[in-house]
Design a protein that fits this description.
The complex is a heterodimer of chains A (284) and B (548). Chain A is an all-alpha fold. Chain A has one domain: MetI-like (MetI-like fold). Chain A has 13 helices and 2 strands, in the order αββαααααααααααα. In chain A, helix 7 (148-176) runs antiparallel to helix 10 and helix 12 (242-253) packs antiparallel against helix 13. The two termini of chain A are 45 Å apart. In chain B, the strands form 3 sheets. In chain B, strands 7, 8, 9, 10, 11 and 13 form a 6-stranded mixed β-sheet that branches. Chain B has a 5-stranded mixed β-sheet with strand order 4-3-5-12-6. Chain B has 548 residues and is α/β, with parallel strands linked by helices. Chain B contains 21 helices and 13 strands. Chain B is globular. Classes of the chains: A mainly alpha (284), B alpha/beta (548). At the A-B interface, helix 12 of A face helix 4 and helix 20 of B.
Chain lengths: 284, 548
C-alpha cells in the first residue's frame, strides 16, 4: 500500500527538481534582489519596496510598458486573422498544401537573432530591398533610424513574418480536429459559407484560437532578441519595449535591484492579463 | 674580337654571379648574426639595472622587477632570429611545464583582433605549451557584465579577461584585478625574457596611481581622421574645391573645414561627404563616440596630456575636485564647448549616408570600405579592412591624418582624441593567475608581435612600431605607422581617464541623453545641460564624494 502512495510522488520528483531549479529559485532570487539597492560592483543594501516605489514613478517604465502593449495589440490584430485565413485555406491534406505549409513554416526554424539580422538588412536605407522598392514606387523615404513610426512598424512586420506561421500551424491542427459531420449536415440544410464559418468552424476552433492568442500575447510582450538587433530602443524610444528597457538597465546601468523589480512587476502583469483573457474567452 | 668578347662576357658573368652570391651570403650572415648578438643578450644577461615604470604625473616611480631577482633584462629586437626564437620557445616550454595538460578560460570581445588571437596566436600557444584555451568571445557589454559579476562574486570562472582600457579606472576603484607588477616581483621566473614594460609605449593608461601594471596592453588603435586620398589628390577636385571655398583641398585641421569638405563631396546616392565612427543609433556607441572624439576635439575638459592628476577629465567634462559635470561646479559638460561639439556632430550628420541613425561602428566602417564616404574619424582597427581589396573598394585609396579640432575651443596641449588600448587583466579570483600572466605576455611576445602588427596593424611595443619591417605596410594602411611613431602625436591620443571608475553606468547616461539630441527631442544646448545634470546625479548615486 505504502509503495502505491509514494510512487507517484517519486515520479513527480525529477520534474519538480528541474522546474524548481529553473523557475522557482531564479524567481525567489529576483524577489530578493528586488528588495535591494544593488548596482553591480557596489555592495547591496536592503531598501524594502523602494524599487517598486521608484518604478511607479518612472516615466520610462510606463512608456515602455505602453509601447509593449501597443506592439502586442498590433501583432495580434494581424497575426490571428492572418493565421486563421491561412489555416482555413490550407487545412486540407493535399500534396500542394503540404508543400505550402512547409514553406510557410520556415521562419519558425530561424533563431530570433538571425531574424533580427535579416530584417536589419531588409530595411537598410542603402542596400535594403524594402526602402528601395518604397522609394521607387512611392518616393517614400524608409529609415528606421529616423522615423519612430517606421521603426515601430518594422518590428511589428518582423514579428508577423516570424510568428504568423506558429498561429497558422496551431489553427490548422484546430481545424483538423473538427469532424466532417457538422459540415455535411449544414450543407444538406443549405447553410451559407458564412453561416458555416460562424456557427461551426469558429466555435470548433475556439480553443485553438485561444491557445494561439495566449501564447502569442505572452511571447510578444517578452519580445527582445529581434528588436535588440534591429532597432534597440529606436528613435525617440519608439521600440523601447519593456524587455529592452530592463536589459539596458541591467547591461548599461548595472542596476540589478531595479531590473529585478521591473521583471517581477512585468511577470505580475502577464499573469493578470493571461488570467483575464482565459476567463473572458472561456466564457464565450 | 669575337673570341675575346666571349671570354670577356664569361668572365663578366662569373664576376657578377660571384658578386651576387657574395652579397647574398653576406646579407644572410649579417642578418643572422647581427640581431642574434643583440638578442643573445636578452637570453643570457641578468638584471643589472632596474626597469622603471612611471605613471606621468604620479608621485611615485616603481621598479620592476625587483633588483634582487635574477630575471633577465630585455633589450627587445624583433623579429627574433630562428635561433633566438627557438630559445624563446624553449623558455616557454620550460616555464609552462608544470601546467601542461591544463586549460585556461579567456573572456574577450568578439572582433577581429581577438579572432586573430583565437585563430593564430592561440594555436601557437597550445602547441608550444600543451595548455588548451577555452575562448568565450562575446559583445563588449556582455564582457563587462560577465567579468564584473565574476569578480564581484569571486566565482573564478575566467583565467584572464580582455578589456578595453576603459575599465582600468574601474579596476583601480574596485581593486578587482591582480597587481601584475607585484606578481612580477613575487614570481620573477615567470617573466618572459622578451617582456619589457619599458617597450610598451601605451602602458601609462594601464597602471594604477603608483605605476603598478593592472592590464598588459595588447592593442593600440588610435581614432584617426581617414580620408579618400584619390579624391583629395585629384587635380580636378582640388581645383573645383579651391574655386568654391578659397583654400586648398587637404586633410582638414578644423571641424569647419571638415564641414566644407563634406558639403563639397556629398553627391548622393553614390558618394557622401562624411560619416562618424559610431553612427547615430541610440546605442552605447553614440556615448563613447562623444567622449572619445567630439568632446575632446572641441576642447571639453582636459588640461595637459598626462593620464593622471587632471582636475577636469578630457572628453568627460567631469571635475574631479567637485565631482560635477556642470560648469557652475567646475565641470564642462554643459559648457559652450560641449554645445559646440554636439552641434558639429548634428551638422555633419546631414552629409552622412542615409541610414546613419540606425547604425553603429561596424556599419559605418562598411560604408567607408564601400567607397561611399569621403572622410571620417574612425578606429584604426578598421584600416586592415579598408586595405583589403577583397572587401574594400578603397584599398590603396585612403590615408590617415590627425583628427580635426574646433577652431574656437580646442587649444594646444589638450588631447585631440582617443586611443583604443585593449589588453589583458587577471581577475583577483582567477583560478590560475600565473597562467593568466603568461598568456598576457605571450600575446605580445617577440615570437608573435611583428606578425600581429603586419596582420592586424596594431602593436604596443616601440621596438615593433619602429621596425623597418613595417615600412612596406605603412602605405597600405594609409600611413598610420608614420603617424603614431611620432611620440608627440601619440600623446594627443589618450585612453579613458583613469579617474573614471564606473565606466558602464556613466556611458549609459551619455548615450541616452545624446540620443535625444539626435532624434530632435532636445537642442544641443538643452542636451548638454541635461547631460551634465544627469551625470551629476549618477555620480552622486554611485557614491562619488560630490561637492555641490
Amino acid at each position: 500500500m505504502g509503495r502505491q502512495v509514494i510512487n507517484p510522488w517519486l515520479l513527480f520528483l525529477p520534474a519538480f527538481i528541474i522546474v524548481g531549479f529553473n523557475s522557482f529559485i531564479p524567481t525567489f532570487y529576483a524577489a530578493y534582489l528586488a528588495t535591494q539597492k544593488y548596482t553591480l560592483g557596489v555592495p547591496s543594501i536592503f531598501i524594502g519596496y523602494d524599487n517598486f516605489f521608484h518604478l511607479m514613478f518612472d516615466p520610462i517604465f510606463w512608456d515602455s510598458l505602453s509601447k509593449g502593449f501597443a506592439f502586442v495589440f498590433a501583432c495580434l490584430v494581424i497575426e490571428i486573422p492572418l493565421g486563421l485565413a491561412l489555416a482555413l485555406a490550407l487545412h486540407r491534406d493535399t500534396r500542394v498544401n503540404r508543400v505550402i505549409r512547409t514553406i510557410l513554416s520556415t521562419p519558425l526554424l530561424i533563431p530570433p537573432l538571425v531574424v533580427g539580422s535579416i530584417w536589419l538588412l531588409m530595411v537598410r536605407p542603402d542596400i535594403g530591398p524594402i526602402p528601395y522598392i518604397l522609394r521607387k514606387l512611392f518616393n517614400l523615404n524608409y529609415d528606421i533610424g529616423t522615423s519612430p513610426f517606421q521603426a515601430f512598424f518594422t518590428t511589428v512586420l518582423m514579428d508577423v513574418w516570424h510568428w504568423t506561421p506558429f498561429v497558422f500551424l496551431v489553427l490548422v491542427a484546430a481545424r483538423a480536429s473538427i469532424p466532417p459531420e457538422p459540415y455535411e449536415s449544414a450543407m444538406v440544410d443549405g447553410a451559407s459559407s458564412w453561416d458555416i464559418f460562424r456557427y461551426i468552424t469558429l466555435p470548433g476552433m475556439k480553443y485553438g484560437i485561444m491557445i494561439a492568442f495566449l501564447i502569442r500575447m505572452m511571447d510578444a510582450l517578452k519580445i527582445f532578441d529581434e528588436v535588440w538587433v534591429l532597432t534597440a530602443e529606436g528613435p525617440k524610444k519608439a521600440t523601447n519595449y519593456l524587455s529592452i528597457y530592463i536589459v539596458k538597465t541591467a547591461l548599461s546601468e548595472l542596476d540589478m535591484g531595479y531590473c529585478a523589480a521591473m521583471s517581477l512587476f512585468f511577470l505580475y502583469i502577464v499573469i493578470i492579463i493571461t488570467f483575464i483573457t482565459l476567463k473572458v474567452m472561456a466564457r464565450r | 674580337m669575337s673570341g675575346e668578347g666571349k671570354v670577356n662576357r664569361r668572365t663578366w658573368l662569373q664576376t657578377v654571379a660571384a658578386a651576387i652570391a657574395g652579397i647574398a651570403v653576406g646579407a644572410a650572415v649579417g642578418w643572422y648574426s647581427k640581431p642574434a648578438k643583440v638578442l643573445e643578450k636578452i637570453i643570457t644577461s641578468t638584471v643589472t639595472k632596474s626597469t622603471t615604470v612611471t605613471a606621468p604625473g604620479a608621485a611615485t616611480t616603481v621598479t620592476v622587477p625587483g633588483a634582487a631577482t635574477t630575471v633577465t633584462k630585455t633589450v627587445t629586437t624583433v623579429p627574433p632570429t630562428p635561433a633566438m626564437a627557438e630559445k624563446l620557445r624553449e623558455w616557454w616550454r620550460k616555464v609552462t611545464e608544470p601546467w601542461r595538460g591544463k586549460r585556461i578560460k579567456i573572456l574577450a570581445q568578439a572582433w577581429e583582433p581577438n579572432y586573430y588571437l583565437r585563430d593564430v596566436v592561440g594555436p601557437k600557444w597550445e602547441k608550444l605549451t600543451g595548455i588548451k584555451i577555452d575562448w568565450e568571445l562575446t559583445s563588449n557589454e556582455l564582457v563587462m557584465e560577465k567579468e564584473i559579476m565574476d569578480m564581484e562574486k569571486g566565482t573564478g570562472i575566467y583565467t584572464v579577461t580582455y578589456d578595453d582600457q576603459d575599465m582600468v579606472g574601474t579596476w583601480i576603484r574596485k581593486k578587482w584585478v591582480i597587481d601584475i607588477t607585484k606578481l612580477m616581483e613575487e614570481r620573477p621566473e615567470l617573466v618572459e625574457p622578451g617582456f619589457d614594460p619599458n617597450d610598451i609605449f601605451c602602458l601609462d593608461y594601464c597602471v594604477d596611481p603608483r605605476g603598478h601594471i593592472l592590464t598588459i596592453p595588447a592593442e593600440y588603435y588610435p581614432k584617426t581622421y581617414v580620408y579618400r586620398s584619390d579624391l583629395f589628390e585629384s587635380p580636378d577636385e582640388k581645383k573645383a574645391f579651391k574655386s568654391k571655398y578659397g583654400y586648398d583641398l587637404e586633410p582638414p585641421r578644423y571641424w569647419d573645414q571638415v564641414h566644407d569638405i563634406a558639403e563639397f563631396f556629398t553627391r548622393p546616392p553614390d558618394l557622401y561627404g562624411w560619416i562618424n565612427a559610431c553612427g547615430a543609433k541610440a546605442h552605447e556607441a553614440l556615448g563613447f563616440d562623444f567622449f572619445e572624439t567630439w568632446f575632446p576635439s572641441c576642447g571639453v575638459g582636459g588640461e595637459g596630456l598626462s593620464p593622471y592628476n587632471r582636475k577636469l577629465l578630457p572628453g568627460w567634462g567631469i571635475n574631479t575636485e567637485t565631482w560635477s559635470a556642470r560648469t557652475e561646479y567646475g565641470g564642462a559638460l554643459d559648457s559652450e564647448a560641449a554645445v559646440k561639439a554636439i552641434d558639429w556632430f548634428l551638422k555633419l550628420l546631414k552629409f552622412a549616408p542615409p541610414g546613419i541613425k540606425g547604425w553603429i561602428y561596424v556599419e559605418c566602417a562598411e560604408q567607408v570600405a564601400a567607397g561611399r564616404v569621403t572622410q571620417t574619424v574612425t578606429y584604426t582597427q578598421f584600416l586592415s579592412t579598408f586595405a583589403n581589396p577583397k572587401v574594400s573598394k578603397i584599398a590603396g585609396k585612403f590615408k590617415v591624418a590627425m583628427p580635426p579640432v574646433d577652431r574656437e575651443y580646442w587649444t594646444p596641449f589638450k588631447p585631440i582624441g582617443y586611443a583604443d588600448i585593449s589588453g589583458y587583466c587577471i581577475p583577483w579570483c582567477s583560478p590560475n593567475p600565473e597562467l593568466g600572466f603568461l598568456w598576457s605576455q605571450f600575446v605580445i611576445s617577440p615570437l608573435n608581435e611583428l606578425d600581429r602588427a603586419k596582420s592586424i596593424n596594431t602593436t604596443v611595443r616601440t621596438s615593433v612600431l619602429m621596425s623597418p619591417e613595417l615600412d612596406p605596410l605603412n602605405a597600405k594602411f594609409g600611413g598610420i605607422f608614420t603617424m603614431i611613431r611620432d611620440p608627440i602625436a601619440q600623446k594627443y591620443f589618450i585612453g579613458t581617464p583613469l579617474e573614471v571608475g564606473d565606466y558602464a553606468p556613466l556611458l549609459y547616461v551619455f548615450y541616452t541623453e545624446l540620443a535625444k539630441a539626435v532624434s530632435g527631442e532636445l537642442t544641443p544646448k538643452e542636451c548638454a545641460k541635461e547631460l551634465a545634470k544627469e551625470i551629476d546625479a549618477k555620480l552622486k548615486e554611485l557614491g562619488y564624494p560630490v561637492k555641490w
